């Protein structure tokens, strides 16, 4: 899918297979994600928005260069994974005013199963 290729080029990453499959199959269109910026119009901006949220919250945490923020909910929490070659990477979660993100799901698949 063209949007995924553009994102990989922009961020110089390889998106995980589970994320690509979920995206291509239209998983982001599920009603479970109402209020969450998770689909195409937002994907180009989410990493920047996440960095702004960290800064505004006073966090000293810096997103790794190979991080891909795939969802932001209501502007005060976001989810991302590290693009390091794993097909089904763990998902990190950040909520406003916390010092740093935490691993909340052991895999992207777990995130999807819990979310829908």
Automatic annotation (TrEMBL):
Gene3D superfamilies: SMI1/KNR4-like. It holds the Pfam family SMI1_KNR4. It comes from the Bacteria. Residues 4-112 form the Knr4/Smi1-like domain. InterPro entries: Knr4/Smi1-like_dom, Knr4/Smi1-like_sf. This is Knr4/Smi1-like domain-containing protein. It comes from Gynuella sunshinyii YC6258.
């Amino acid at each position: 899918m063209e949007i995924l290729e553009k994102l990989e080029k922009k961020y110089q990453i390889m998106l995980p297979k589970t994320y690509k499959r979920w995206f291509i199959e239209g998983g982001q269109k599920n009603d479970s994600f109402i209020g969450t910026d998770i689909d195409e119009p937002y994907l180009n901006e989410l990493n920047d928005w996440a960095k702004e949220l960290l800064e505004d919250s006073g966090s000293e945490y810096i997103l790794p260069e190979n991080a891909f923020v795939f969802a932001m909910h209501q502007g005060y929490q976001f989810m991302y994974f590290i693009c390091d070659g794993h097909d089904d990477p763990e998902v990190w979660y950040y909520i406003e005013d916390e010092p740093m993100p935490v691993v909340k799901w052991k895999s992207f698949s777990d995130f999807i199963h819990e979310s829908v």
